[in-house]
Amino acid sequence: MKNYFMKILNQYIKEIYYLKWYIIPIIVAIVLSYSVYLFFNVDIVSNLGEEDHFFEWLTALNFLAASIFLLSGFIKTKNFFFLLLSLLFFIGCAEEISWGQRIFNYETPESIKEVNVQREFNFHNIEIFDTYDFQGHSKHSLSRLLEVNFLFRIFTMLFGIVLPFCVFHIKLIADITKKIKLPIPPISIGIFFIINWLTFRILLSYVLPQGRVFQFYDTAGEIFECIEAFVILIISLYFFNKRKINIPGMDIKHFI
C-alpha cells in the first residue's frame, strides 16, 4: 500500500516538474497582483480595480487570448470541445467590458437598463444573475444558484480540479472522457483556482485593515477574477501547445 501511494505521489511530482514553465508564471502573477496592497496607497489600489482600469482590462485580455488559443486548437484538431470553450471565454471577455459599450459609446437599451444592477449592456449584472441586488445586498443560499460569478467558480473547480483528478483515478470516467475526446486540464495547473480563492479570502478576512473605502476592497475581487482568467489562459496555452501529443480525454500523467 505504501509503495502504491508513493508511486501516485511521484506521478504528481513528475507532472509538476514537467509543467513547471506553465506553473511558474501563475505563481508570479498571484504574488505580483496581490502585492499591490503592499506597495501602493489606497488611492492607487482603488484605481487599479475600477471599471475600465488595469485589472478589468487585463482580465478581458486573458479571456480573449484564451479564446484565441482554443479556437486555434479547434482549427488544428477539429475537437468540438475546443470550440465550445473558445466561445465561452470569448463571451467572458465581452461581458467583462460590457460588449465594448464604453469603447464604442452606445447606450444601454432601456429593457436591459431596468433589470441591470450596473445599468450596463451585459448579462452577468442583470439582477437575477448578479452577486448583488439593486439595494447593494449580497445574495445568500438558494438565491446564488443563478449567480454567474458563483456558477463560473463552480465550473473552474469542476473542470480544473475534480475532472482531472477523477480521470486519473477512476478508469470508468477516463474511458468516457477518452471516448468523447474531452480535453483534460492538468490538475497541477487547475489547483491554482483553489490557491487563488484561498489567497483572496485570507486577504479580505485577515489582512486588509477595516474602515477603508469600498473600492479598496473591491479591487481584491478584480484581482481574483484576473488571476482566474490567467489560469484559464495558461490551461488554454497548454491545450494549444500539447495538441499534437495530448491524447484527448486522458490525464497528462498517463503519457508523460
Précis, in short:
The protein has 256 residues and is an all-alpha fold. The protein is built from 13 helices and no strands. The chain is globular.
Please describe the structure with a list of short key phrases separated by commas or semicolons.
256 residues; mainly alpha; 13 helices
Your description of this structure?
This protein has 256 residues and is mainly α. The protein is built from 13 helices and no strands. Helix 2 (20-34) runs parallel beside helix 12 (192-207), helix 4 (42-48) packs across helix 13 and helix 9 packs across helix 10 (171-180).
- Helix/strand structural class: mainly alpha
State the major sheet.
none
Strand fraction? under 5%
Count of runs of 4 or more consecutive helical residues: 13
Radius of gyration: 20 Å
H and E string: HHHHHHHHHHHHH
Average of pLDDT: 89
Number of separate strands: 0
What is the helix fraction of residues, given as a range? 55-70%
Blueprint of the fold:
Blueprint: H1 2-18, H2 20-34, H3 36-39, H4 42-48, H5 54-77, H6 80-96, H7 101-104, H8 110-113, H9 148-169, H10 171-180, H11 187-190, H12 192-207, H13 214-241
Helix pairs in contact: 2-12, 2-13, 4-13, 5-6, 5-13, 9-10, 12-13
